[in-house]
Amino acid sequence: MLNRSFPNEFILLPFADTRELQLLHFGLFLGIYLAALLGNGLTLTAVACDHRLHTPMYFFLLNLALLDICTITTTVPKAMANSLWDTRIISYLECVAQIFFFFFFLSAEFFLLIIMAYDRYVAICKPLHYGTVMASRTCVTMAAAAWGSTFLYAVLHTANTFSLPLCQGNALDQFFCEIPQILKLSCSDVYLREVGLLVVSACLASGFFIFLMLSYVQIFMAVLKIPSHESRCKAFSTCLPHLAVVSLFISTATFSYLRPPSMSSSSLNLLLAVLYSVVPPAVNPLIYSMRNQELKDAVWKVITGGFSERINYLFCSACHS
């Protein structure tokens, strides 16, 4: 350590102690990471390239796919490298950067999910006003507000967390750096300031969650009044995947940050962290495309189009040679 307040590095919690299990963890996380990159990358490409998907719902889905890539890239590659090279070390600056970017992307994703719920509410409950309320400029402004406000929010929490004196060692009870684990190392009552900020944040998040639930109550009431069975199924196909994503994300993240200390354990910390930081980015593309024929068609077009171009390129190269 340089002094008792600022350690040079932190020691992360390993997934396994034996070399075989470490390599198994590396392989598992590598598969999940590549699946997340592939799924979200295909979603990004499909939405960007298919003009039929240039609508508010898919614009926000594009932002969600980008955030999912950023979120999982913040934590998983470092965990894979530690397992592969049999180390548990993360430098002080790496830890600061990881907390900032993770908090930034996670908060932005939460607010984006709220915006997406509002988009579905307007589309189903006020369809005649949808074009006016969710105009292109409004959608861009809402997305920019989500990114910008959560950037400043992450700066506030990161600066506040690392302004605390740390004298309880440098071992973190998690496989990546996160704020609750840093607060456990504090040797000053000043850490209550950051705890207070987290509680205020949780209250705000709860308010937004209540808004989201009320929106979905009205959405489901409106959908059930639709006389056409086909129209009801189409409406549900755009709402239920979003509700599933929100429920998984919010429930695991809230329980992880606000559970009582008596329920804290290393294995539970790892499980909850994987559920809210690793699983959603990997399964979101699957959830959103499962009952969305438009998106599935666009993704398939991207896959088959890229394959056809590759075949044509190889054929032309063989002909010229």
Describe this structure in words.
This protein is mostly helical and 321 residues long. The protein is 76% helix and 2% strand. The protein contains 11 helices and 2 strands, in the order βααβααααααααα. It has a two-stranded antiparallel sheet. α1 (19-49) packs antiparallel against α2 (56-84) and α2 packs antiparallel against α10. It is globular, with a radius of gyration of 22 Å. The chain starts with 8 loop residues before the first strand and ends with a helix. The model has no long low-confidence stretch (mean pLDDT 82).
What are the main properties of this structure?
321 residues; mainly alpha; two-stranded antiparallel sheet; 2 strands
Gist of the model:
The protein is an all-alpha fold and 321 residues long. It has helices at 19-49, 56-84, 92-125, 130-133, 136-161, 179-183, 191-224, 229-258, 266-277, 279-290, 293-320; strands at residues 9-11, 89-91.
Element layout with pairings:
Elements: E1 9-11, H1 19-49, H2 56-84, E2 89-91, H3 92-125, H4 130-133, H5 136-161, H6 179-183, H7 191-224, H8 229-258, H9 266-277, H10 279-290, H11 293-320
Antiparallel strand pairs: 1-2
Helix pairs in contact: 1-2, 1-10, 1-11, 2-3, 2-10, 3-5, 3-7, 3-8, 7-8, 8-9, 8-10
Helix-residue proportion: over 70%
Low-confidence stretches: none
Structural class assignment: mainly alpha
Quaternary organisation? single chain
Average pLDDT rating:
82
Shape: globular
What order do the helices and strands follow? EHHEHHHHHHHHH
- What is the rounded Rg? 22 Å
